[in-house]
Design goal:
The structure is a homodimer of 202-residue chains. With 202 residues, chain A is α+β, with helices and mostly antiparallel strands. Helices cover 12% and strands 28% of the residues of chain A. In chain A, the strands form two sheets. Chain A has a six-stranded antiparallel sheet with strand order 1-10-3-8-6-5. In chain A, strands 2-9-4-7 form a four-stranded antiparallel sheet, with helices on one face. In chain A, a hairpin with a 5-residue loop joins strand 5 and strand 6 (78-85). At the A-B interface, helix 1 and helix 2 of A face helix 1 and helix 2 of B.
Chain lengths: 202, 202
Protein backbone atom coordinates (compact mmCIF):
# COMPACT_ATOMS: atom_id res chain seq x y z
CA UNK A 1 0.00 0.00 0.00
CA UNK A 2 1.21 3.51 -0.77
CA UNK A 3 2.41 6.04 1.77
CA UNK A 4 1.36 9.60 1.17
CA UNK A 5 4.36 10.36 -0.98
CA UNK A 6 5.32 7.06 -2.58
CA UNK A 7 4.67 6.61 -6.30
CA UNK A 8 3.01 3.26 -7.00
CA UNK A 9 2.68 1.42 -10.30
CA UNK A 10 -0.27 -0.32 -11.87
CA UNK A 11 1.67 -2.51 -14.30
CA UNK A 12 0.51 -2.53 -17.90
CA UNK A 13 -2.43 -4.99 -18.32
CA UNK A 14 -2.90 -5.35 -14.54
CA UNK A 15 -5.10 -4.05 -11.72
CA UNK A 16 -4.46 -2.62 -8.26
CA UNK A 17 -6.65 -1.36 -5.42
CA UNK A 18 -5.92 1.32 -2.85
CA UNK A 19 -7.65 2.27 0.40
CA UNK A 20 -8.33 5.97 0.93
CA UNK A 21 -9.63 7.60 4.07
CA UNK A 22 -12.06 10.46 3.69
CA UNK A 23 -10.09 13.59 2.77
CA UNK A 24 -7.17 11.73 1.20
CA UNK A 25 -6.82 11.84 -2.57
CA UNK A 26 -5.35 9.67 -5.29
CA UNK A 27 -3.31 11.17 -8.11
CA UNK A 28 -3.52 8.90 -11.15
CA UNK A 29 -0.81 9.50 -13.72
CA UNK A 30 -1.05 8.65 -17.42
CA UNK A 31 2.71 8.13 -17.86
CA UNK A 32 2.61 7.42 -21.60
CA UNK A 33 -0.32 9.75 -22.26
CA UNK A 34 -2.04 7.02 -24.28
CA UNK A 35 -3.13 4.62 -21.55
CA UNK A 36 -6.76 4.21 -20.51
CA UNK A 37 -7.29 3.53 -16.80
CA UNK A 38 -10.55 1.84 -15.78
CA UNK A 39 -11.42 3.25 -12.37
CA UNK A 40 -13.83 2.11 -9.65
CA UNK A 41 -14.57 3.29 -6.11
CA UNK A 42 -16.29 1.32 -3.33
CA UNK A 43 -17.49 2.48 0.07
CA UNK A 44 -14.97 0.93 2.50
CA UNK A 45 -17.74 0.27 5.04
CA UNK A 46 -20.04 -1.52 2.58
CA UNK A 47 -18.72 -2.61 -0.80
CA UNK A 48 -22.28 -2.82 -2.14
CA UNK A 49 -22.17 0.96 -2.39
CA UNK A 50 -19.93 2.03 -5.25
CA UNK A 51 -19.35 4.77 -7.80
CA UNK A 52 -21.99 4.25 -10.47
CA UNK A 53 -21.95 5.76 -13.95
CA UNK A 54 -25.71 5.33 -14.43
CA UNK A 55 -26.50 7.01 -11.13
CA UNK A 56 -23.91 9.73 -11.71
CA UNK A 57 -25.14 10.84 -15.15
CA UNK A 58 -28.61 12.03 -13.99
CA UNK A 59 -27.05 13.87 -11.05
CA UNK A 60 -24.35 15.59 -13.12
CA UNK A 61 -26.56 16.08 -16.20
CA UNK A 62 -23.79 14.96 -18.51
CA UNK A 63 -22.16 11.82 -19.88
CA UNK A 64 -18.72 13.42 -19.43
CA UNK A 65 -17.61 14.05 -15.83
CA UNK A 66 -15.22 16.95 -15.47
CA UNK A 67 -12.95 18.60 -12.93
CA UNK A 68 -15.12 19.97 -10.11
CA UNK A 69 -17.77 17.25 -10.34
CA UNK A 70 -18.76 15.11 -7.40
CA UNK A 71 -18.76 11.49 -8.57
CA UNK A 72 -21.61 9.64 -6.96
CA UNK A 73 -22.59 6.16 -5.90
CA UNK A 74 -25.53 3.84 -6.50
CA UNK A 75 -26.93 5.34 -3.28
CA UNK A 76 -26.64 8.82 -4.83
CA UNK A 77 -23.90 10.02 -2.45
CA UNK A 78 -20.60 11.68 -3.39
CA UNK A 79 -17.70 9.25 -3.10
CA UNK A 80 -14.95 11.08 -5.02
CA UNK A 81 -14.42 14.72 -5.93
CA UNK A 82 -12.89 15.09 -9.40
CA UNK A 83 -10.47 17.70 -8.07
CA UNK A 84 -7.83 18.11 -10.79
CA UNK A 85 -7.45 17.14 -14.43
CA UNK A 86 -4.43 18.27 -16.45
CA UNK A 87 -5.73 16.51 -19.60
CA UNK A 88 -8.33 17.97 -22.01
CA UNK A 89 -11.04 16.23 -19.95
CA UNK A 90 -12.06 13.42 -22.28
CA UNK A 91 -13.09 10.41 -20.16
CA UNK A 92 -15.73 7.74 -20.75
CA UNK A 93 -18.75 6.63 -18.71
CA UNK A 94 -20.54 4.55 -21.39
CA UNK A 95 -18.48 1.43 -21.96
CA UNK A 96 -18.34 -1.65 -19.72
CA UNK A 97 -15.04 -3.00 -18.46
CA UNK A 98 -13.57 -5.37 -21.03
CA UNK A 99 -13.78 -9.06 -20.20
CA UNK A 100 -12.79 -12.38 -21.66
CA UNK A 101 -16.16 -12.66 -23.44
CA UNK A 102 -15.41 -9.38 -25.21
CA UNK A 103 -12.01 -10.54 -26.43
CA UNK A 104 -13.60 -13.76 -27.65
CA UNK A 105 -15.94 -11.69 -29.80
CA UNK A 106 -12.94 -9.69 -31.04
CA UNK A 107 -11.36 -12.90 -32.31
CA UNK A 108 -9.13 -14.03 -29.43
CA UNK A 109 -9.04 -17.80 -29.06
CA UNK A 110 -7.10 -17.91 -25.79
CA UNK A 111 -7.44 -15.98 -22.53
CA UNK A 112 -6.83 -12.24 -22.82
CA UNK A 113 -6.05 -10.00 -19.86
CA UNK A 114 -9.07 -7.85 -19.11
CA UNK A 115 -10.27 -5.10 -16.79
CA UNK A 116 -13.07 -7.17 -15.22
CA UNK A 117 -10.58 -9.76 -13.96
CA UNK A 118 -8.12 -6.97 -13.07
CA UNK A 119 -10.71 -5.41 -10.77
CA UNK A 120 -11.21 -8.72 -8.99
CA UNK A 121 -7.45 -9.38 -8.78
CA UNK A 122 -6.66 -5.88 -7.50
CA UNK A 123 -9.31 -6.11 -4.81
CA UNK A 124 -8.19 -9.63 -3.85
CA UNK A 125 -4.65 -8.35 -3.25
CA UNK A 126 -6.02 -6.29 -0.36
CA UNK A 127 -8.32 -9.04 0.88
CA UNK A 128 -11.58 -7.90 -0.71
CA UNK A 129 -14.06 -9.21 -3.26
CA UNK A 130 -16.08 -6.75 -5.36
CA UNK A 131 -19.79 -7.58 -5.08
CA UNK A 132 -20.23 -7.07 -8.81
CA UNK A 133 -18.38 -5.32 -11.67
CA UNK A 134 -19.79 -1.80 -11.78
CA UNK A 135 -19.52 0.07 -15.05
CA UNK A 136 -16.17 1.88 -14.65
CA UNK A 137 -15.07 5.46 -15.06
CA UNK A 138 -12.71 5.01 -17.99
CA UNK A 139 -10.10 7.71 -17.49
CA UNK A 140 -8.70 9.09 -20.77
CA UNK A 141 -10.86 6.76 -22.86
CA UNK A 142 -12.11 8.74 -25.85
CA UNK A 143 -15.54 7.55 -26.97
CA UNK A 144 -17.06 10.27 -29.16
CA UNK A 145 -20.86 10.25 -29.43
CA UNK A 146 -22.29 11.73 -32.63
CA UNK A 147 -25.65 13.58 -32.84
CA UNK A 148 -27.43 10.30 -33.71
CA UNK A 149 -25.95 8.62 -30.64
CA UNK A 150 -23.38 6.56 -32.53
CA UNK A 151 -20.17 5.85 -30.62
CA UNK A 152 -16.65 5.46 -31.98
CA UNK A 153 -13.34 4.09 -30.66
CA UNK A 154 -11.15 7.18 -30.40
CA UNK A 155 -7.54 7.48 -29.27
CA UNK A 156 -6.71 9.29 -26.01
CA UNK A 157 -6.19 13.03 -26.40
CA UNK A 158 -4.06 13.21 -23.23
CA UNK A 159 -0.31 13.84 -23.22
CA UNK A 160 2.48 12.02 -21.34
CA UNK A 161 2.33 12.74 -17.63
CA UNK A 162 -1.24 14.03 -17.58
CA UNK A 163 -2.90 13.25 -14.29
CA UNK A 164 -6.17 13.47 -12.44
CA UNK A 165 -6.67 13.89 -8.70
CA UNK A 166 -9.72 12.24 -7.13
CA UNK A 167 -10.38 13.14 -3.49
CA UNK A 168 -12.24 10.71 -1.23
CA UNK A 169 -15.54 12.03 0.11
CA UNK A 170 -15.96 8.89 2.22
CA UNK A 171 -13.59 6.12 3.31
CA UNK A 172 -13.28 4.09 0.15
CA UNK A 173 -11.36 1.64 -1.98
CA UNK A 174 -10.24 2.89 -5.39
CA UNK A 175 -9.45 0.18 -7.95
CA UNK A 176 -7.52 0.83 -11.15
CA UNK A 177 -6.83 -1.24 -14.25
CA UNK A 178 -4.27 -0.35 -16.92
CA UNK A 179 -6.65 -1.49 -19.66
CA UNK A 180 -5.15 -4.31 -21.77
CA UNK A 181 -7.24 -3.51 -24.86
CA UNK A 182 -4.72 -3.98 -27.70
CA UNK A 183 -7.12 -4.81 -30.53
CA UNK A 184 -9.11 -1.55 -30.75
CA UNK A 185 -7.16 1.78 -30.81
CA UNK A 186 -8.43 3.06 -27.45
CA UNK A 187 -4.92 2.88 -25.98
CA UNK A 188 -3.45 4.72 -28.98
CA UNK A 189 -2.93 3.78 -32.60
CA UNK A 190 0.15 1.73 -31.66
CA UNK A 191 -1.98 -0.43 -29.31
CA UNK A 192 0.90 -0.33 -26.81
CA UNK A 193 -0.29 -1.04 -23.27
CA UNK A 194 1.68 0.89 -20.65
CA UNK A 195 1.94 1.36 -16.89
CA UNK A 196 -0.24 3.72 -14.92
CA UNK A 197 1.23 5.35 -11.81
CA UNK A 198 -0.56 6.61 -8.75
CA UNK A 199 0.19 8.41 -5.54
CA UNK A 200 -1.89 8.91 -2.41
CA UNK A 201 -2.10 12.56 -1.37
CA UNK A 202 -2.93 13.78 2.10
CA UNK B 1 -48.67 -15.16 -15.62
CA UNK B 2 -49.86 -14.36 -19.13
CA UNK B 3 -51.06 -16.87 -21.68
CA UNK B 4 -50.00 -16.23 -25.23
CA UNK B 5 -52.98 -14.07 -25.99
CA UNK B 6 -53.97 -12.49 -22.68
CA UNK B 7 -53.29 -8.79 -22.19
CA UNK B 8 -51.65 -8.13 -18.83
CA UNK B 9 -51.31 -4.86 -16.97
CA UNK B 10 -48.35 -3.34 -15.18
CA UNK B 11 -50.30 -0.93 -12.97
CA UNK B 12 -49.13 2.66 -12.89
CA UNK B 13 -46.19 3.02 -10.41
CA UNK B 14 -45.74 -0.75 -10.10
CA UNK B 15 -43.55 -3.57 -11.44
CA UNK B 16 -44.19 -7.00 -12.91
CA UNK B 17 -42.02 -9.84 -14.19
CA UNK B 18 -42.75 -12.36 -16.91
CA UNK B 19 -41.02 -15.61 -17.90
CA UNK B 20 -40.33 -16.09 -21.60
CA UNK B 21 -39.04 -19.21 -23.25
CA UNK B 22 -36.59 -18.82 -26.12
CA UNK B 23 -38.55 -17.83 -29.24
CA UNK B 24 -41.47 -16.27 -27.36
CA UNK B 25 -41.80 -12.51 -27.43
CA UNK B 26 -43.24 -9.80 -25.22
CA UNK B 27 -45.28 -6.96 -26.71
CA UNK B 28 -45.06 -3.95 -24.39
CA UNK B 29 -47.76 -1.34 -24.96
CA UNK B 30 -47.52 2.33 -24.06
CA UNK B 31 -51.27 2.78 -23.56
CA UNK B 32 -51.15 6.50 -22.79
CA UNK B 33 -48.22 7.21 -25.08
CA UNK B 34 -46.49 9.17 -22.32
CA UNK B 35 -45.43 6.39 -19.96
CA UNK B 36 -41.81 5.33 -19.55
CA UNK B 37 -41.30 1.61 -18.91
CA UNK B 38 -38.06 0.55 -17.23
CA UNK B 39 -37.19 -2.85 -18.68
CA UNK B 40 -34.80 -5.59 -17.57
CA UNK B 41 -34.07 -9.12 -18.80
CA UNK B 42 -32.37 -11.92 -16.86
CA UNK B 43 -31.18 -15.32 -18.05
CA UNK B 44 -33.72 -17.76 -16.54
CA UNK B 45 -30.97 -20.32 -15.90
CA UNK B 46 -28.66 -17.90 -14.07
CA UNK B 47 -29.97 -14.53 -12.95
CA UNK B 48 -26.40 -13.20 -12.70
CA UNK B 49 -26.50 -12.91 -16.47
CA UNK B 50 -28.73 -10.03 -17.52
CA UNK B 51 -29.28 -7.44 -20.23
CA UNK B 52 -26.63 -4.78 -19.67
CA UNK B 53 -26.65 -1.30 -21.12
CA UNK B 54 -22.89 -0.82 -20.67
CA UNK B 55 -22.11 -4.12 -22.39
CA UNK B 56 -24.69 -3.48 -25.11
CA UNK B 57 -23.42 -0.03 -26.17
CA UNK B 58 -19.96 -1.18 -27.35
CA UNK B 59 -21.51 -4.10 -29.24
CA UNK B 60 -24.19 -1.98 -30.95
CA UNK B 61 -21.96 1.08 -31.39
CA UNK B 62 -24.73 3.41 -30.25
CA UNK B 63 -26.37 4.72 -27.10
CA UNK B 64 -29.81 4.32 -28.74
CA UNK B 65 -30.93 0.74 -29.40
CA UNK B 66 -33.32 0.42 -32.33
CA UNK B 67 -35.59 -2.09 -34.01
CA UNK B 68 -33.43 -4.90 -35.42
CA UNK B 69 -30.80 -4.72 -32.68
CA UNK B 70 -29.83 -7.70 -30.58
CA UNK B 71 -29.85 -6.58 -26.94
CA UNK B 72 -27.01 -8.22 -25.09
CA UNK B 73 -26.04 -9.34 -21.63
CA UNK B 74 -23.11 -8.78 -19.29
CA UNK B 75 -21.73 -11.99 -20.83
CA UNK B 76 -21.98 -10.39 -24.29
CA UNK B 77 -24.72 -12.74 -25.52
CA UNK B 78 -28.02 -11.77 -27.20
CA UNK B 79 -30.92 -12.07 -24.77
CA UNK B 80 -33.66 -10.11 -26.60
CA UNK B 81 -34.17 -9.15 -30.23
CA UNK B 82 -35.68 -5.67 -30.56
CA UNK B 83 -38.10 -6.95 -33.19
CA UNK B 84 -40.73 -4.21 -33.59
CA UNK B 85 -41.08 -0.57 -32.55
CA UNK B 86 -44.09 1.48 -33.67
CA UNK B 87 -42.78 4.60 -31.88
CA UNK B 88 -40.16 7.01 -33.28
CA UNK B 89 -37.48 4.91 -31.56
CA UNK B 90 -36.45 7.19 -28.70
CA UNK B 91 -35.45 5.03 -25.72
CA UNK B 92 -32.82 5.57 -23.04
CA UNK B 93 -29.81 3.51 -21.94
CA UNK B 94 -28.02 6.13 -19.83
CA UNK B 95 -30.09 6.67 -16.70
CA UNK B 96 -30.26 4.39 -13.65
CA UNK B 97 -33.59 3.13 -12.33
CA UNK B 98 -35.05 5.67 -9.93
CA UNK B 99 -34.86 4.79 -6.25
CA UNK B 100 -35.86 6.22 -2.92
CA UNK B 101 -32.47 7.98 -2.59
CA UNK B 102 -33.21 9.79 -5.85
CA UNK B 103 -36.62 11.02 -4.69
CA UNK B 104 -35.04 12.19 -1.45
CA UNK B 105 -32.65 14.35 -3.49
CA UNK B 106 -35.63 15.64 -5.48
CA UNK B 107 -37.23 16.87 -2.26
CA UNK B 108 -39.49 13.99 -1.18
CA UNK B 109 -39.58 13.56 2.59
CA UNK B 110 -41.54 10.30 2.63
CA UNK B 111 -41.23 7.06 0.67
CA UNK B 112 -41.81 7.42 -3.07
CA UNK B 113 -42.59 4.49 -5.36
CA UNK B 114 -39.56 3.75 -7.50
CA UNK B 115 -38.36 1.46 -10.28
CA UNK B 116 -35.58 -0.14 -8.22
CA UNK B 117 -38.10 -1.43 -5.65
CA UNK B 118 -40.54 -2.28 -8.46
CA UNK B 119 -37.95 -4.57 -10.05
CA UNK B 120 -37.48 -6.39 -6.75
CA UNK B 121 -41.25 -6.60 -6.12
CA UNK B 122 -42.03 -7.82 -9.63
CA UNK B 123 -39.40 -10.52 -9.42
CA UNK B 124 -40.53 -11.53 -5.93
CA UNK B 125 -44.07 -12.09 -7.25
CA UNK B 126 -42.70 -14.96 -9.34
CA UNK B 127 -40.42 -16.24 -6.59
CA UNK B 128 -37.15 -14.67 -7.69
CA UNK B 129 -34.66 -12.15 -6.34
CA UNK B 130 -32.62 -10.03 -8.75
CA UNK B 131 -28.91 -10.34 -7.92
CA UNK B 132 -28.47 -6.58 -8.38
CA UNK B 133 -30.28 -3.70 -10.09
CA UNK B 134 -28.85 -3.54 -13.60
CA UNK B 135 -29.09 -0.25 -15.44
CA UNK B 136 -32.45 -0.62 -17.26
CA UNK B 137 -33.51 -0.15 -20.85
CA UNK B 138 -35.86 2.79 -20.36
CA UNK B 139 -38.46 2.34 -23.08
CA UNK B 140 -39.84 5.65 -24.42
CA UNK B 141 -37.68 7.69 -22.04
CA UNK B 142 -36.42 10.71 -23.98
CA UNK B 143 -32.99 11.80 -22.76
CA UNK B 144 -31.44 14.02 -25.43
CA UNK B 145 -27.63 14.26 -25.39
CA UNK B 146 -26.17 17.47 -26.82
CA UNK B 147 -22.80 17.68 -28.66
CA UNK B 148 -21.05 18.52 -25.37
CA UNK B 149 -22.55 15.42 -23.72
CA UNK B 150 -25.13 17.30 -21.65
CA UNK B 151 -28.34 15.39 -20.99
CA UNK B 152 -31.86 16.76 -20.59
CA UNK B 153 -35.18 15.44 -19.26
CA UNK B 154 -37.37 15.25 -22.36
CA UNK B 155 -40.96 14.13 -22.68
CA UNK B 156 -41.81 10.90 -24.54
CA UNK B 157 -42.30 11.34 -28.29
CA UNK B 158 -44.44 8.20 -28.52
CA UNK B 159 -48.21 8.21 -29.17
CA UNK B 160 -51.00 6.32 -27.40
CA UNK B 161 -50.87 2.62 -28.18
CA UNK B 162 -47.29 2.56 -29.44
CA UNK B 163 -45.65 -0.74 -28.68
CA UNK B 164 -42.39 -2.61 -28.91
CA UNK B 165 -41.91 -6.34 -29.39
CA UNK B 166 -38.88 -7.95 -27.76
CA UNK B 167 -38.21 -11.59 -28.71
CA UNK B 168 -36.39 -13.89 -26.30
CA UNK B 169 -33.10 -15.22 -27.61
CA UNK B 170 -32.69 -17.38 -24.50
CA UNK B 171 -35.09 -18.50 -21.76
CA UNK B 172 -35.39 -15.36 -19.69
CA UNK B 173 -37.30 -13.26 -17.22
CA UNK B 174 -38.39 -9.82 -18.43
CA UNK B 175 -39.20 -7.30 -15.69
CA UNK B 176 -41.13 -4.09 -16.31
CA UNK B 177 -41.79 -1.01 -14.19
CA UNK B 178 -44.34 1.69 -15.05
CA UNK B 179 -41.95 4.41 -13.88
CA UNK B 180 -43.46 6.48 -11.03
CA UNK B 181 -41.33 9.57 -11.77
CA UNK B 182 -43.84 12.41 -11.27
CA UNK B 183 -41.43 15.23 -10.39
CA UNK B 184 -39.43 15.48 -13.63
CA UNK B 185 -41.37 15.60 -16.97
CA UNK B 186 -40.10 12.25 -18.30
CA UNK B 187 -43.63 10.79 -18.16
CA UNK B 188 -45.08 13.83 -19.95
CA UNK B 189 -45.57 17.45 -18.97
CA UNK B 190 -48.67 16.49 -16.94
CA UNK B 191 -46.58 14.10 -14.83
CA UNK B 192 -49.46 11.61 -14.95
CA UNK B 193 -48.29 8.04 -14.28
CA UNK B 194 -50.26 5.47 -16.28
CA UNK B 195 -50.53 1.72 -16.79
CA UNK B 196 -48.35 -0.24 -19.17
CA UNK B 197 -49.83 -3.32 -20.84
CA UNK B 198 -48.04 -6.35 -22.15
CA UNK B 199 -48.79 -9.54 -24.00
CA UNK B 200 -46.75 -12.68 -24.54
CA UNK B 201 -46.51 -13.66 -28.19
CA UNK B 202 -45.70 -17.11 -29.46
Amino acid sequence: MADASEIMTVPARRGRAQRLTKGQAIKIINVSGTQVCDTWAFNAEDLREFMSMEHMRPTLGTIFPRQGHHLITNRRRPILLFETDTSPGIHDTLIAACDDYRYGLLGCTTYHDNCTDNLAAGMRQIGLTPPETPSPLNLWMNIPVDPEGKTAWGEPVSKPGDYVVLRAEMDCIVALSACPQDILPINGANRQITDIQYQVLA
